[in-house]
Amino acid sequence: MKQPLSQKIKNTFFGVIGMILLIENGANLLNTNALLTEEAKTYANMSAQITASKFETWLAEKRTLVDILAREMERKGIPDNNEIFKVGLMKYTDEDIENIGFVRETTNEYFDTIGTLLEDDYVVTQSSWYKEAVEADGQVVFGDPYFSPALNQMSVTTSRTIRDKNGELLGVLTCEIGLENVSQMLSTYSEDNGRYVFVVNEALQLLMHPDEQYNPTDEKVLDITNNEGDYTALATNELQTIHIVKTSAGDRAYGIQYPINETTWRIVSIQPTRHITYDILTQCIKAIILFIATILLIHILIKRVNNRYINPINDISMILENLKDGYLHTDEINVPIETKEIEILVHSVEAISNTLNIYIRDISYILDKFAKGDFTLNNEEDYDYIGDFKPIQDSMKNISISLSALIKTSAQSTQEVNHGSIQLVKAAENLAQYTTDQIVLLDDFKLTTKEITNNISENIDAISKASETITEMTKKTVTGKEFMQGMIVSMNSISETTKNIAEVIMVIDELAQQTNILALNAAIESARAGEAGKGFGVVASEVRQLAMKTGETVKLIDDILLENLNTVREGEKMVELTSMTFDEIVASIEKTASVSEIIAQNSSMQKSFIQKLLDGTEVLGARVEESSAISQENVAISQELASEAENLKCQLNNFKI
After folding, report:
1. Choosing a second label site near 112 at 20 to 30 A (CA), which of 165, 228, 317, 533?
2. How confident is the model over 193-218, as pLDDT tens digits?
3. How far apart are CA 290 and CA 436, in angstroms?
């Protein structure tokens, strides 16, 4: 649903002013945030620089003091008596240098002004301050701050070598300087709002801190990377650059490391960002208050403008809405006229309402005449419509002329329809008779088709049985062929065996011939022997006769085997011819089976086609029956149409044209 004009103006003004205020306040907040951030970074950097400068000044003072003391000792010399030397050293102690000690090079003996007692296993020459002084030879060096139990405060050791006029090392002078006063420099830049500075060494161990709990003791030295806060950015980045850290209190802050010259110390300055957040929130609250006040002021102004100039337009729009809904009778329009445009709108709405009432009454009168069948217009009662309403008047005249012509034409058409309906009734009756004749012919055709289908089914069954018989004959023929192959193998075996027997007979024949020769030789030898060999001669004669009979028998057997072998060969030829005949029979049976299968398939296809033809015939019969029913309906409809045409003719006679 669309919003009213007054609401749109209100929303538009609110949106534009709100957007302008948001952009302006957003830009101010971003600028303020940038300025406060830069101020915080500058403060952290400046506090680190100033504190480092003060530390360097303080260290320079102490370095100068220790150097002057050392030079005076080199000039005057070192007393051999430790007590006298200790009394002389006590003159140089003050509120800062609270303890002065010395290590003799010749004896490695240590003594100081407060009488510190060293542990038995403590080797003073191995201490860091002693080694650093020897390495710096003639230069004053500072060690890292530590908690001194003897002084009961944070202290720092400074040391320097002492040499005689010949350059021989006499010992190392050490001064223990209390840091209570110098710690006040850290407190100067440590405030309750979270700003503070502290001192670390290169290993990021805390040396001095405004909070006593973080200062070194004789038991522990804290590392800021292992502290409760997160100072990783300081540990992993370059010196003198601003980084975001997290303090031990959990605050987000800007941090910077600033080195102290000629030492391994570093000043760390911490500037929390919470005061930036507080200032930003303050600015946000101010901006919100300004935004709300501006919106309220705009709301009041827009309301006054709407009541004076926009609400009359809304009242006119409601009147136009009623006109749109068909309520043309409007009472006197009570709208305050403040501008020329509103006056024009009021008069125009009144004129539109009056004109529409006149036109609607005229149109209603003409349409009422049309409803009563009177399509004639009285030209004397007409008056011209104005503007875009003129086509409506012309259209009503055209409707009257068109309907009059239409009714005349309809009357003529009705007569023609009446005549045509009579002709249609006759044609429908003839069509119904033709359809009935077609149904009779289709019934005869369907019966004939069913008989053909039954005959083809019987043929298919007979062909199927013949195919099964042929298949069985094929199997038996194949079996007979296999037996014939076995017979051929057996005949070949018999032929081979007969050949082997013939070879054996030949061997026996050769033995008989040799026996005959031996018997002949034996007879000759027995004849030579005379009476003594007579008996041997008889035996030889018998043996010879036996060998001759054996030869005759072998020859007879050989003849029989030869005849048998020829008979076997003839049998083999007959078996081969029989096998070939079986092959031809199998091939013929297979062809017959294939032809029978094709005939069966064709018969099945013919049966399927005839079945489809039969189904089509039944469908055609159903359609013809439906056509017959439709023809009967056409006859009834044609008769009814003729009756309706007559009624229409009577009704058209009632119109006045």
Report:
1. 165
2. 778 888 888 888 888 888 878 888 77
3. 100
* Residue at token pair 């710690």: 183
User: Pairing mode, if any, of strands 110-112 and 196-200?
Assistant: unpaired
Contacts of 574 (CB under 8 A, 6+ apart): none
Tell me the CATH number for domain 398-652: 1.10.287.950
Cβ neighbours for 387, distance < 8 A, ≥ 6 positions apart: none
- Taking CA atoms, 239 is separated from 41, 45, 55, 259, in Å, by 14, 11, 17, 8
Domain ranges of the chain: 22-279, 398-652
Provide the pairing of β-strand 97-104 with 206-208. unpaired
Is the distance from CB of 258 to CB of 239 less than 8 angstroms? yes
C-beta separation of 18 from 295 below 8 A: yes
Domains 22-279 and 398-652 are alike in CATH topology: no
Closest by Cα among 197, 347, 322, 200 to 264: 200
What's the mean per-residue pLDDT of the chain? Answer: 78
31-45, 126-140, 322-336: which range is least confident on average? 322-336
| Residue owning tokens 């009563």 | 372
Residue showing tokens 């079945």: 611
pLDDT for residue 214: 80
- CA 301 to chain CA centroid, Å, is 55
Q: Given this model, what pLDDT does residue 161 score?
A: 93
pLDDT at 653 over 70: no
Burial 392-416 (b: 16+ CB within 10 A, else e): ebeebeebbeebeeebeebbebbee
Cβ atoms 192, 208 nearer than 8 A: no
Q: With contact defined as beta carbons under 8 Å apart, do 10 and 298 qualify?
A: no
Of the ranges 437-441, 451-455, 504-508, which is most confident?
504-508
Where does the pLDDT of residue 380 fall: very low under 50, low under 70, confident under 90, or very high at 90 and above? Answer: very low
Task: Give the number of other Cβ atoms within 10 Å of residue 266's Cβ.
Answer: 22
Angle between helices 311-324 and 340-371 (to 10 degrees): 10
Neighbouring CB atoms inside 10 A of 283's CB total 17
Phi/psi for 268 (5° steps) reads -110, 120
Question: Which amino acid type is present at position 205?
Answer: Q
What is the H or E stretch that residue 334 is in?
A: none
Question: Would you tell me the crossing angle of helices 5-76 and 311-324 to the nearest 10 degrees?
Answer: 140
Dist. CA 600–CA 471, nearest whole Å: 14
Q: Which amino acid is at 633?
A: E
Rounded distance, CA 57 to CA 63, Å? 10
The three-class DSSP label of residue 154 is: strand
Three-state secondary structure call for residue 162: strand
HSE, CB side, 13 Å, CA atoms: give it for residue 514.
6
Q: Among candidates 107, 105, 127, which has minimal Cα distance to 118?
A: 127
Q: Who contacts 565 (Cβ-Cβ below 8 Å, separation ≥6)? A: 495, 498, 499, 502
Tell me the backbone φ, ψ of residue 522, rounded to 5 degrees: -65, -35
Strand partners, 269: 197, 256
| Residue 609 near residue 602 (C-beta atoms within 8 A) | no
Q: Which residues pair with 223 in a beta bridge?
A: 205
Between the two ends of the chain, the Cα-to-Cα distance in Å is 50
* Backbone dihedral angles phi then psi of residue 88, each to the nearest 5 degrees: -65, -35
Q: Write down the architecture of domain 22-279 according to CATH.
A: 2-Layer Sandwich (3.30)
Task: Tell me the pLDDT band of 425, cut-offs 50, 70 and 90.
Answer: low
User: Per mean pLDDT, which of 222-236, 244-258, 330-344, 617-631 is the most reliable?
Assistant: 244-258
Token duo for residue 429: 């009756």
